[in-house]
Design brief:
3% helix; homodimer; mainly beta
């Protein structure tokens, strides 16, 4: 039982698009991710995904729209929804989703990350 | 699908200790709560509970210890753990827990709140 300062713990992350787990709530994981540039188009077939911006600004692109999230803003991507996160400048976000979810969802490629790394 | 600014939405809350739901992720709910003073001792038998401080400072008292959470800090209270949240000054927090969880857990009393209020 220890508290987590979301901004401070992000200093432990060096690679972009590599989620680090900081806590678990039941079978859900709280992950911190540093992002910059474009991620890949993907969806998560079985689960919604919570995005929360800790520092900076990001966009989530959908097939027919996009949304910009600023620091302190939260958004839930519904399950099955094709999306592509991106950030012009470095941005730190929190993700919450069930244990075992792969960052690239149905897609794969170089940005697919291990999904069991604690920081 | 709309984004939520956690600080701005808290202005819609007038009563202390009355959680307002702002989003759902699968069968979990994201709730905003304004708190001040002491809550009641209680536990949640079947679920962990995520606390995140949006504005201000709070404490969570346990039977043999306590922890202070500042703005930007996150803490998971494990299921079954007796706890009593408190705040000397007004504080705004986000809670995440499964749909249907009662704020006073196994306890009851005047601070028991409806758990299906959206804001």
């Amino acid at each position: 039982m220890k508290k987590i300062n979301l901004q401070q713990i992000s200093s432990k992350i060096s690679n972009y698009w590599s989620p680090g787990i900081v806590a678990e709530m039941n079978d859900y994981q709280i992950k911190i991710v540093k992002i910059k540039g474009d991620f890949v188009w993907h969806h998560h077939k079985k689960t919604d995904e919570l995005f929360y911006v800790i520092e900076g600004k990001m966009s989530i692109n959908f097939l027919d729209s996009s949304i910009t999230l600023n620091k302190g803003e939260l958004f839930i991507v519904p399950k099955g929804t094709e999306h592509k996160p991106s950030a012009d400048e470095e941005c730190v976000i929190m993700l919450i989703e069930p244990r075992g979810v792969r960052n690239t969802g149905n897609a794969s490629g170089d940005l697919t990350s291990a999904n069991d790394i604690w920081i």
